[in-house]
Amino acid sequence: MPQLLGGIAYIWPYYVGGLLAYLLGSIPFGLLLTRLAGLGDIRKIGSGNIGATNVLRTGRKGLAALTVLLDFGKGLAAVLLAASFGPDMAIFAAFGVVLGHMFPVWLGFKGGKAVATAGGVLLALNWQIGVAALLAWLVVAVVFRYSSLAAIAACVVAPAWTYWLTKRIDLTEIVGLIALLVILRHRANIARLLRGEESKIQLSSKPE
Fold it and tell me: Would you list the domain boundaries of the chain?
């Protein structure tokens, strides 16, 4: 990681890279897609979140899937582009793009939980870490059918697997920080899970 004592001339490109990644991450695809589809403001539907899980509550599965792909894609693209300038730049971009999704300047810093975006980041940083997190999400989602619980499980697996696989402290720290941010964005979901009030993943229009 670049050291602060290296001087402004050395570190400013990393902050520029992080800022560009933040701007990419702050594109609210869920909000844009639902508006283009004539569904209004997704922030006034369901949980009010701009992510794919809330888009799914509109009943438009294709739109929700596209939201996942685009949110995942911006995390993937930000890190892969930054990686061409070196591994340190990739780490700055990883943090920046996740922050952008969570706190987009265009929406008064009120964004999503960045689960899909973080998934793209992990896959770009190391495909094995990304796959491990995705498998953890899928297993918990299929067994328990709680999207939030699946996201939390993936966040626990990701930094542990990162350290076991790479033994890199810097990479483990950034993955751990991203995982912590995602978990913190699920505070309300965790409270509902503990009360038994969390909504399950609905793949059909029939109530349970």
Answer: 4-195
